[in-house]
Amino acid sequence: MTTETPAGIDAAPPPPQGASHAPASRAIRAAAWSARAAWVRARFLVALAAAFLVVGRWDVLRTYWDRWTAPAAREAAMGAVSADTEYFCPMEPGVVSDWPAKCPICHMALVRRKKGDMGPLPDGVIARVQLSPERILLAGVRTAPLRYEPLARTIRLVGPLAAGDASRRLTAETSVEEASWLRPGLEADVLPDPPDGLPARKGKVAAIEGGTRVTIDLPDWTGPIPRLAAATVRIPMADREPFRSMPRGEPPIRPGDPRAVYTCAEHPASTATQAGRCPQDGKALMRSPLAANQKVAWWCPMHPSVCADVPGRKCDECGGMTLVPRVVSYCPAGKVLAVPESAVIDTGARRVVYVEGMPGMFDGVEVRLGPRCGTSYPVVDGLEEGMRVAEAGAFLVDAETRLNPGLAAAYLGARRGDPAAAPAATATAPPGDAEAPADHLDLDELSPADRAVAIAQKTCPVTKKPLGSMGTPVRVEVKGRAVFVCCSGCTGALQANPDRYLPPPPAAHPAHHP
What we know:
Shape: elongated
Radius of gyration: 40 Å
Largest sheet: 7 strands, antiparallel
Number of domains: 5
Structural class: alpha+beta
CATH superfamily of the largest domain: Efflux pump adaptor protein, beta barrel domain
CATH topology of the largest domain: Elongation Factor Tu (Ef-tu), domain 3
Distance between the termini: 124 Å
Strand content: 25-35%
Number of strands: 28
CATH class of the largest domain: Mainly Beta
Protein backbone atom coordinates (compact mmCIF):
# COMPACT_ATOMS: atom_id res chain seq x y z
CA MET A 1 0.00 0.00 0.00
CA THR A 2 1.39 3.27 -1.11
CA THR A 3 0.76 6.51 0.71
CA GLU A 4 0.71 9.53 -1.49
CA THR A 5 0.97 13.11 -0.50
CA PRO A 6 -2.12 15.07 -1.20
CA ALA A 7 -1.84 17.62 -3.87
CA GLY A 8 -1.38 21.15 -2.75
CA ILE A 9 0.44 20.24 0.34
CA ASP A 10 4.20 21.01 0.14
CA ALA A 11 6.71 18.66 1.80
CA ALA A 12 8.86 20.03 4.71
CA PRO A 13 12.23 21.33 3.53
CA PRO A 14 15.23 19.19 4.54
CA PRO A 15 17.34 20.49 7.49
CA PRO A 16 20.52 22.34 6.54
CA GLN A 17 23.69 20.28 6.38
CA GLY A 18 25.70 20.36 9.65
CA ALA A 19 22.86 21.52 11.79
CA SER A 20 22.79 18.23 13.69
CA HIS A 21 26.47 18.65 14.70
CA ALA A 22 26.14 22.14 16.14
CA PRO A 23 25.24 21.08 19.71
CA ALA A 24 28.17 18.60 19.77
CA SER A 25 30.69 21.19 18.61
CA ARG A 26 29.45 23.65 21.18
CA ALA A 27 29.90 21.02 23.89
CA ILE A 28 33.45 20.29 22.74
CA ARG A 29 34.32 23.98 22.70
CA ALA A 30 32.87 24.39 26.16
CA ALA A 31 34.88 21.42 27.48
CA ALA A 32 38.08 22.73 25.88
CA TRP A 33 37.48 26.16 27.33
CA SER A 34 36.89 24.64 30.78
CA ALA A 35 40.07 22.53 30.54
CA ARG A 36 42.07 25.55 29.44
CA ALA A 37 40.70 27.61 32.28
CA ALA A 38 41.52 24.84 34.75
CA TRP A 39 45.06 24.54 33.36
CA VAL A 40 45.62 28.28 33.55
CA ARG A 41 44.60 28.24 37.19
CA ALA A 42 46.40 24.98 38.10
CA ARG A 43 49.67 25.40 36.24
CA PHE A 44 51.22 27.27 39.15
CA LEU A 45 50.44 24.37 41.46
CA VAL A 46 51.83 21.89 38.92
CA ALA A 47 55.05 23.90 38.56
CA LEU A 48 55.38 24.13 42.33
CA ALA A 49 54.86 20.36 42.71
CA ALA A 50 57.45 19.67 40.00
CA ALA A 51 59.95 21.93 41.75
CA PHE A 52 59.40 20.14 45.06
CA LEU A 53 59.84 16.79 43.31
CA VAL A 54 63.12 17.84 41.69
CA VAL A 55 64.51 19.22 44.94
CA GLY A 56 63.42 16.22 46.97
CA ARG A 57 64.77 13.64 44.52
CA TRP A 58 67.81 15.56 43.33
CA ASP A 59 70.27 12.90 44.53
CA VAL A 60 68.44 10.23 42.53
CA LEU A 61 68.36 12.40 39.41
CA ARG A 62 72.07 13.23 39.83
CA THR A 63 72.91 9.55 40.18
CA TYR A 64 71.04 8.67 36.99
CA TRP A 65 72.66 11.57 35.16
CA ASP A 66 76.16 10.51 36.25
CA ARG A 67 75.43 6.93 35.26
CA TRP A 68 74.14 7.87 31.78
CA THR A 69 76.98 10.29 31.06
CA ALA A 70 79.80 8.18 32.58
CA PRO A 71 82.24 6.20 30.42
CA ALA A 72 80.92 2.78 29.50
CA ALA A 73 84.10 0.92 30.50
CA ARG A 74 83.91 0.32 34.24
CA GLU A 75 85.00 -2.42 36.61
CA ALA A 76 81.90 -4.20 37.85
CA ALA A 77 83.65 -5.24 41.06
CA MET A 78 83.95 -1.64 42.21
CA GLY A 79 80.18 -1.26 42.54
CA ALA A 80 77.87 1.54 41.48
CA VAL A 81 78.94 5.17 41.68
CA SER A 82 76.77 7.57 43.65
CA ALA A 83 76.89 11.24 44.47
CA ASP A 84 78.56 10.57 47.84
CA THR A 85 81.20 8.09 46.62
CA GLU A 86 84.78 8.66 45.49
CA TYR A 87 87.88 6.57 44.87
CA PHE A 88 91.36 7.17 46.31
CA CYS A 89 94.79 5.53 46.37
CA PRO A 90 96.03 4.30 49.78
CA MET A 91 99.65 4.67 48.65
CA GLU A 92 99.16 8.19 47.22
CA PRO A 93 96.23 9.70 49.19
CA GLY A 94 96.21 12.81 47.03
CA VAL A 95 95.01 10.82 44.02
CA VAL A 96 91.18 11.02 44.15
CA SER A 97 88.72 10.20 41.37
CA ASP A 98 84.94 10.14 40.98
CA TRP A 99 85.17 6.94 38.94
CA PRO A 100 86.96 3.60 39.29
CA ALA A 101 90.46 3.79 37.82
CA LYS A 102 94.10 3.05 38.55
CA CYS A 103 96.55 5.34 40.31
CA PRO A 104 98.78 7.06 37.71
CA ILE A 105 101.70 6.96 40.17
CA CYS A 106 101.76 3.44 41.64
CA HIS A 107 99.25 1.82 39.20
CA MET A 108 97.25 0.43 42.11
CA ALA A 109 93.46 0.10 41.76
CA LEU A 110 91.72 2.97 43.54
CA VAL A 111 89.71 2.09 46.63
CA ARG A 112 86.13 3.19 47.13
CA ARG A 113 85.18 5.39 50.09
CA LYS A 114 82.55 7.90 51.11
CA LYS A 115 83.25 11.48 50.07
CA GLY A 116 84.87 13.52 52.81
CA ASP A 117 85.88 10.45 54.80
CA MET A 118 89.61 10.53 55.53
CA GLY A 119 89.65 6.83 56.36
CA PRO A 120 92.10 5.17 58.75
CA LEU A 121 95.56 6.69 58.76
CA PRO A 122 98.62 4.47 58.29
CA ASP A 123 100.53 3.28 61.35
CA GLY A 124 102.82 6.01 62.69
CA VAL A 125 100.87 8.87 61.04
CA ILE A 126 98.94 10.99 63.52
CA ALA A 127 97.57 13.64 61.13
CA ARG A 128 97.24 14.31 57.42
CA VAL A 129 96.51 17.51 55.52
CA GLN A 130 96.43 18.44 51.83
CA LEU A 131 97.09 22.01 50.71
CA SER A 132 96.60 23.58 47.31
CA PRO A 133 99.62 25.13 45.54
CA GLU A 134 98.17 28.60 46.12
CA ARG A 135 97.93 28.06 49.89
CA ILE A 136 101.43 26.59 50.02
CA LEU A 137 102.76 29.67 48.22
CA LEU A 138 100.85 32.10 50.46
CA ALA A 139 101.90 30.30 53.66
CA GLY A 140 105.54 30.10 52.58
CA VAL A 141 105.75 26.35 53.17
CA ARG A 142 109.11 25.02 52.00
CA THR A 143 110.35 21.43 52.08
CA ALA A 144 113.84 19.94 52.17
CA PRO A 145 115.18 16.36 52.07
CA LEU A 146 116.76 14.79 55.14
CA ARG A 147 120.49 14.09 55.00
CA TYR A 148 123.20 12.65 57.23
CA GLU A 149 125.30 15.37 58.83
CA PRO A 150 128.24 15.42 61.29
CA LEU A 151 126.29 17.00 64.14
CA ALA A 152 128.11 17.87 67.34
CA ARG A 153 127.21 19.49 70.64
CA THR A 154 129.37 22.54 71.39
CA ILE A 155 130.16 23.50 74.99
CA ARG A 156 131.99 26.73 75.81
CA LEU A 157 133.90 27.03 79.09
CA VAL A 158 135.41 30.24 80.48
CA GLY A 159 137.75 30.35 83.46
CA PRO A 160 141.09 31.53 84.83
CA LEU A 161 144.29 30.15 83.34
CA ALA A 162 146.89 29.01 85.88
CA ALA A 163 150.53 28.21 85.11
CA GLY A 164 151.98 25.13 86.73
CA ASP A 165 155.46 23.68 86.85
CA ALA A 166 155.14 21.59 83.71
CA SER A 167 151.98 22.82 81.98
CA ARG A 168 149.22 25.35 82.12
CA ARG A 169 145.71 24.48 83.25
CA LEU A 170 142.28 26.03 82.69
CA THR A 171 139.63 25.61 85.40
CA ALA A 172 136.01 26.49 84.63
CA GLU A 173 132.60 26.05 86.21
CA THR A 174 129.65 24.79 84.18
CA SER A 175 126.19 23.37 84.72
CA VAL A 176 125.52 19.77 85.69
CA GLU A 177 123.79 19.15 82.36
CA GLU A 178 126.75 20.37 80.29
CA ALA A 179 129.25 18.59 82.52
CA SER A 180 127.45 15.31 81.85
CA TRP A 181 128.49 15.62 78.21
CA LEU A 182 132.18 15.89 79.02
CA ARG A 183 134.66 13.12 79.75
CA PRO A 184 138.43 13.05 80.24
CA GLY A 185 140.38 12.94 77.00
CA LEU A 186 138.15 15.15 74.86
CA GLU A 187 140.01 17.75 72.82
CA ALA A 188 139.37 21.46 73.33
CA ASP A 189 140.27 24.63 71.44
CA VAL A 190 141.44 27.33 73.86
CA LEU A 191 141.75 31.06 73.16
CA PRO A 192 142.47 34.00 75.47
CA ASP A 193 139.41 35.96 76.51
CA PRO A 194 139.41 38.45 74.82
CA PRO A 195 141.18 36.81 71.82
CA ASP A 196 144.74 37.83 71.00
CA GLY A 197 144.51 37.11 67.26
CA LEU A 198 146.64 33.96 67.44
CA PRO A 199 145.40 30.48 66.42
CA ALA A 200 143.60 28.44 69.05
CA ARG A 201 145.73 26.29 71.34
CA LYS A 202 144.97 22.61 71.71
CA GLY A 203 144.04 21.17 75.08
CA LYS A 204 142.41 18.11 76.62
CA VAL A 205 139.82 17.64 79.33
CA ALA A 206 141.77 16.35 82.33
CA ALA A 207 139.13 15.90 85.02
CA ILE A 208 135.57 16.70 86.07
CA GLU A 209 135.26 17.37 89.79
CA GLY A 210 132.10 17.78 91.81
CA GLY A 211 129.89 17.42 88.75
CA THR A 212 130.43 21.06 87.72
CA ARG A 213 134.18 21.88 87.83
CA VAL A 214 136.06 21.07 84.62
CA THR A 215 139.85 21.08 84.32
CA ILE A 216 141.58 21.36 80.91
CA ASP A 217 145.32 20.79 80.46
CA LEU A 218 147.23 22.97 77.96
CA PRO A 219 150.66 21.35 77.53
CA ASP A 220 151.57 23.31 74.39
CA TRP A 221 150.58 26.82 75.43
CA THR A 222 152.88 29.48 74.02
CA GLY A 223 152.94 33.19 74.59
CA PRO A 224 151.90 35.31 77.54
CA ILE A 225 149.50 33.89 80.06
CA PRO A 226 146.15 35.75 80.06
CA ARG A 227 143.99 36.10 83.11
CA LEU A 228 140.96 34.43 81.48
CA ALA A 229 140.66 31.91 78.66
CA ALA A 230 137.75 30.33 76.79
CA ALA A 231 137.71 26.66 75.78
CA THR A 232 135.40 25.17 73.15
CA VAL A 233 134.69 21.43 73.32
CA ARG A 234 132.85 19.64 70.49
CA ILE A 235 131.18 16.30 71.28
CA PRO A 236 130.15 14.41 68.10
CA MET A 237 126.64 13.02 68.34
CA ALA A 238 127.81 9.87 66.56
CA ASP A 239 129.83 9.03 69.69
CA ARG A 240 126.83 9.30 72.01
CA GLU A 241 124.16 6.72 72.73
CA PRO A 242 121.91 5.63 71.12
CA PHE A 243 123.66 6.81 67.94
CA ARG A 244 126.89 5.02 68.81
CA SER A 245 125.08 1.65 68.77
CA MET A 246 123.48 2.23 65.35
CA PRO A 247 124.87 0.31 62.34
CA ARG A 248 127.54 2.32 60.55
CA GLY A 249 129.58 2.09 57.41
CA GLU A 250 128.73 0.03 54.34
CA PRO A 251 126.06 -2.65 54.83
CA PRO A 252 127.45 -6.21 54.54
CA ILE A 253 125.46 -7.32 51.50
CA ARG A 254 125.99 -10.92 50.41
CA PRO A 255 124.99 -12.58 47.13
CA GLY A 256 121.35 -13.57 47.26
CA ASP A 257 120.33 -11.01 49.88
CA PRO A 258 116.97 -9.37 49.02
CA ARG A 259 117.27 -5.86 47.62
CA ALA A 260 113.57 -5.06 47.89
CA VAL A 261 110.83 -5.54 50.45
CA TYR A 262 107.05 -5.69 50.25
CA THR A 263 105.14 -3.48 52.67
CA CYS A 264 101.53 -2.52 53.38
CA ALA A 265 100.53 1.09 52.79
CA GLU A 266 98.47 1.23 56.00
CA HIS A 267 100.58 -1.14 58.15
CA PRO A 268 104.28 -0.43 57.50
CA ALA A 269 105.24 -2.96 60.18
CA SER A 270 103.91 -5.75 57.93
CA THR A 271 107.12 -6.29 55.96
CA ALA A 272 107.88 -9.31 53.77
CA THR A 273 110.62 -10.31 51.36
CA GLN A 274 108.18 -11.83 48.86
CA ALA A 275 104.97 -10.65 47.26
CA GLY A 276 101.82 -11.45 49.19
CA ARG A 277 99.05 -9.89 51.22
CA CYS A 278 99.00 -7.98 54.48
CA PRO A 279 98.05 -10.31 57.36
CA GLN A 280 96.02 -7.52 59.00
CA ASP A 281 93.75 -6.28 56.20
CA GLY A 282 94.42 -8.72 53.34
CA LYS A 283 95.52 -6.03 50.87
CA ALA A 284 98.30 -6.70 48.37
CA LEU A 285 101.78 -5.71 49.55
CA MET A 286 103.63 -3.06 47.53
CA ARG A 287 107.23 -3.54 46.39
CA SER A 288 109.77 -1.03 47.74
CA PRO A 289 113.41 -1.17 46.57
CA LEU A 290 116.14 -0.71 49.17
CA ALA A 291 118.63 2.15 49.19
CA ALA A 292 122.37 1.60 48.91
CA ASN A 293 122.82 1.96 52.68
CA GLN A 294 120.02 -0.47 53.60
CA LYS A 295 119.74 -4.22 53.98
CA VAL A 296 117.21 -6.74 55.25
CA ALA A 297 117.68 -8.34 58.67
CA TRP A 298 115.44 -10.54 60.79
CA TRP A 299 114.51 -9.82 64.40
CA CYS A 300 112.00 -10.52 67.16
CA PRO A 301 109.64 -7.58 67.84
CA MET A 302 109.20 -8.72 71.45
CA HIS A 303 112.96 -9.17 72.06
CA PRO A 304 114.84 -6.70 69.81
CA SER A 305 118.21 -8.11 70.87
CA VAL A 306 117.41 -11.38 69.08
CA CYS A 307 118.54 -10.80 65.47
CA ALA A 308 119.69 -12.84 62.50
CA ASP A 309 121.09 -12.19 59.03
CA VAL A 310 119.29 -15.12 57.38
CA PRO A 311 115.60 -16.07 57.39
CA GLY A 312 114.12 -19.03 59.20
CA ARG A 313 115.64 -18.45 62.63
CA LYS A 314 113.46 -18.63 65.74
CA CYS A 315 113.38 -16.75 69.03
CA ASP A 316 113.91 -19.12 71.96
CA GLU A 317 112.73 -16.50 74.46
CA CYS A 318 109.32 -16.35 72.72
CA GLY A 319 108.97 -20.10 72.58
CA GLY A 320 109.92 -20.63 68.95
CA MET A 321 108.52 -17.50 67.27
CA THR A 322 109.87 -17.10 63.74
CA LEU A 323 111.91 -13.92 63.29
CA VAL A 324 110.33 -11.35 60.99
CA PRO A 325 112.15 -9.19 58.41
CA ARG A 326 112.88 -5.52 58.83
CA VAL A 327 114.91 -2.90 56.97
CA VAL A 328 118.15 -1.77 58.65
CA SER A 329 119.72 1.55 57.57
CA TYR A 330 123.47 2.07 57.97
CA CYS A 331 124.74 5.54 58.89
CA PRO A 332 127.93 7.01 57.39
CA ALA A 333 130.86 7.09 59.78
CA GLY A 334 130.78 10.14 62.06
CA LYS A 335 127.34 11.30 60.88
CA VAL A 336 123.75 11.11 62.08
CA LEU A 337 120.42 11.77 60.39
CA ALA A 338 119.54 15.43 60.99
CA VAL A 339 116.22 17.27 60.83
CA PRO A 340 116.01 21.10 60.92
CA GLU A 341 114.82 22.63 64.16
CA SER A 342 112.18 24.63 62.28
CA ALA A 343 110.57 21.40 61.03
CA VAL A 344 109.88 20.06 64.54
CA ILE A 345 106.54 20.75 66.25
CA ASP A 346 106.95 20.17 70.00
CA THR A 347 103.55 19.83 71.69
CA GLY A 348 105.03 19.05 75.10
CA ALA A 349 103.74 15.47 74.99
CA ARG A 350 105.41 14.50 71.71
CA ARG A 351 107.38 15.85 68.77
CA VAL A 352 105.86 15.84 65.30
CA VAL A 353 107.44 16.37 61.88
CA TYR A 354 105.33 16.86 58.75
CA VAL A 355 106.58 14.73 55.85
CA GLU A 356 105.54 15.53 52.28
CA GLY A 357 104.40 12.21 50.82
CA MET A 358 103.40 13.80 47.51
CA PRO A 359 103.05 17.40 46.29
CA GLY A 360 100.78 19.23 48.72
CA MET A 361 100.13 16.17 50.94
CA PHE A 362 101.70 16.30 54.42
CA ASP A 363 101.67 13.50 57.00
CA GLY A 364 102.34 14.27 60.65
CA VAL A 365 104.81 11.68 61.96
CA GLU A 366 105.78 11.30 65.61
CA VAL A 367 109.56 11.17 65.97
CA ARG A 368 112.20 10.53 68.62
CA LEU A 369 114.99 13.07 68.61
CA GLY A 370 118.24 13.63 70.41
CA PRO A 371 119.38 16.91 71.99
CA ARG A 372 119.51 19.95 69.74
CA CYS A 373 122.82 20.66 68.04
CA GLY A 374 122.86 24.18 66.66
CA THR A 375 119.93 24.48 64.25
CA SER A 376 119.27 20.74 63.84
CA TYR A 377 118.13 17.73 65.83
CA PRO A 378 119.62 14.24 65.48
CA VAL A 379 116.94 11.67 64.60
CA VAL A 380 116.66 8.53 66.72
CA ASP A 381 113.54 7.03 65.16
CA GLY A 382 110.62 7.90 62.89
CA LEU A 383 112.33 9.35 59.79
CA GLU A 384 114.48 8.06 56.94
CA GLU A 385 117.08 9.63 54.68
CA GLY A 386 115.58 11.31 51.63
CA MET A 387 112.19 12.13 53.18
CA ARG A 388 111.07 15.66 52.39
CA VAL A 389 109.95 17.54 55.50
CA ALA A 390 108.36 20.96 55.91
CA GLU A 391 111.31 22.98 57.17
CA ALA A 392 109.54 26.34 56.74
CA GLY A 393 105.89 26.87 57.64
CA ALA A 394 105.54 23.61 59.55
CA PHE A 395 103.57 25.36 62.30
CA LEU A 396 101.06 26.57 59.69
CA VAL A 397 100.56 23.01 58.44
CA ASP A 398 100.06 21.87 62.03
CA ALA A 399 97.58 24.71 62.63
CA GLU A 400 95.59 23.56 59.60
CA THR A 401 95.09 20.12 61.13
CA ARG A 402 93.98 21.68 64.41
CA LEU A 403 91.52 24.06 62.74
CA ASN A 404 89.93 21.13 60.90
CA PRO A 405 89.74 18.20 63.37
CA GLY A 406 88.39 15.97 60.61
CA LEU A 407 91.89 15.91 59.08
CA ALA A 408 93.60 14.68 62.24
CA ALA A 409 93.36 11.37 64.04
CA ALA A 410 94.32 10.61 67.61
CA TYR A 411 97.28 8.28 68.06
CA LEU A 412 97.21 4.69 69.26
CA GLY A 413 93.50 4.04 68.84
CA ALA A 414 92.03 7.16 70.45
CA ARG A 415 88.84 8.38 68.78
CA ARG A 416 89.13 11.13 66.20
CA GLY A 417 87.92 14.46 67.48
CA ASP A 418 87.55 13.17 71.04
CA PRO A 419 89.82 15.28 73.28
CA ALA A 420 89.03 13.13 76.28
CA ALA A 421 90.45 10.07 74.55
CA ALA A 422 94.04 11.25 74.67
CA PRO A 423 94.53 11.09 78.46
CA ALA A 424 92.90 7.68 78.53
CA ALA A 425 95.21 6.41 75.82
CA THR A 426 98.32 7.47 77.72
CA ALA A 427 97.48 5.33 80.72
CA THR A 428 99.47 2.10 80.39
CA ALA A 429 99.21 -1.10 82.31
CA PRO A 430 102.15 -2.27 84.41
CA PRO A 431 104.69 -4.49 82.62
CA GLY A 432 103.46 -8.02 82.28
CA ASP A 433 99.92 -7.11 83.25
CA ALA A 434 97.59 -9.12 81.04
CA GLU A 435 94.55 -7.19 82.23
CA ALA A 436 95.33 -4.10 80.16
CA PRO A 437 92.22 -2.02 79.45
CA ALA A 438 90.69 -2.68 76.05
CA ASP A 439 90.60 1.06 75.21
CA HIS A 440 94.40 1.17 75.35
CA LEU A 441 94.85 -1.71 72.91
CA ASP A 442 94.75 -1.55 69.14
CA LEU A 443 91.54 -3.50 68.50
CA ASP A 444 89.54 -0.90 66.56
CA GLU A 445 90.18 -2.47 63.14
CA LEU A 446 88.64 -5.81 64.16
CA SER A 447 85.03 -6.61 63.42
CA PRO A 448 82.67 -6.55 66.43
CA ALA A 449 82.63 -10.35 66.58
CA ASP A 450 86.43 -10.67 66.35
CA ARG A 451 86.89 -7.85 68.85
CA ALA A 452 84.72 -9.68 71.39
CA VAL A 453 86.79 -12.85 70.87
CA ALA A 454 90.08 -10.94 71.24
CA ILE A 455 88.93 -9.22 74.43
CA ALA A 456 87.83 -12.56 75.88
CA GLN A 457 91.15 -14.19 74.89
CA LYS A 458 93.13 -11.25 76.37
CA THR A 459 96.69 -12.46 75.65
CA CYS A 460 98.72 -13.92 72.81
CA PRO A 461 99.21 -17.67 73.38
CA VAL A 462 102.83 -17.48 72.14
CA THR A 463 104.26 -14.35 73.81
CA LYS A 464 101.71 -13.97 76.64
CA LYS A 465 101.47 -10.26 75.82
CA PRO A 466 98.11 -8.41 75.72
CA LEU A 467 96.44 -8.60 72.34
CA GLY A 468 96.64 -5.25 70.60
CA SER A 469 99.82 -4.13 72.37
CA MET A 470 101.79 -4.65 69.13
CA GLY A 471 99.15 -3.49 66.66
CA THR A 472 96.02 -5.11 65.34
CA PRO A 473 95.96 -8.81 66.33
CA VAL A 474 96.23 -11.43 63.58
CA ARG A 475 93.50 -14.07 63.30
CA VAL A 476 94.67 -17.68 62.86
CA GLU A 477 92.54 -20.80 62.30
CA VAL A 478 94.04 -23.70 64.27
CA LYS A 479 92.20 -27.04 64.60
CA GLY A 480 88.92 -25.41 63.73
CA ARG A 481 89.37 -22.70 66.37
CA ALA A 482 89.79 -18.97 65.77
CA VAL A 483 92.82 -17.78 67.74
CA PHE A 484 94.36 -14.31 67.79
CA VAL A 485 98.11 -13.68 68.09
CA CYS A 486 99.89 -10.41 68.77
CA CYS A 487 101.73 -10.23 65.42
CA SER A 488 102.32 -12.17 62.22
CA GLY A 489 105.60 -13.54 63.57
CA CYS A 490 103.71 -15.73 66.05
CA THR A 491 101.58 -17.49 63.44
CA GLY A 492 104.34 -19.90 62.40
CA ALA A 493 105.10 -21.06 65.93
CA LEU A 494 101.40 -21.49 66.74
CA GLN A 495 100.63 -23.49 63.60
CA ALA A 496 103.73 -25.66 64.00
CA ASN A 497 103.01 -26.67 67.60
CA PRO A 498 99.45 -25.74 68.59
CA ASP A 499 99.29 -28.22 71.49
CA ARG A 500 102.11 -26.36 73.20
CA TYR A 501 100.42 -22.96 73.19
CA LEU A 502 96.69 -23.64 73.14
CA PRO A 503 94.90 -24.99 76.20
CA PRO A 504 92.84 -28.13 75.66
CA PRO A 505 89.15 -27.53 74.93
CA PRO A 506 86.97 -27.65 78.03
CA ALA A 507 85.64 -31.14 78.70
CA ALA A 508 81.92 -31.71 79.02
CA HIS A 509 80.72 -31.82 82.60
CA PRO A 510 79.48 -35.29 83.60
CA ALA A 511 75.83 -35.65 84.35
CA HIS A 512 75.03 -35.14 87.99
CA HIS A 513 73.39 -38.09 89.68
CA PRO A 514 71.98 -37.71 93.18
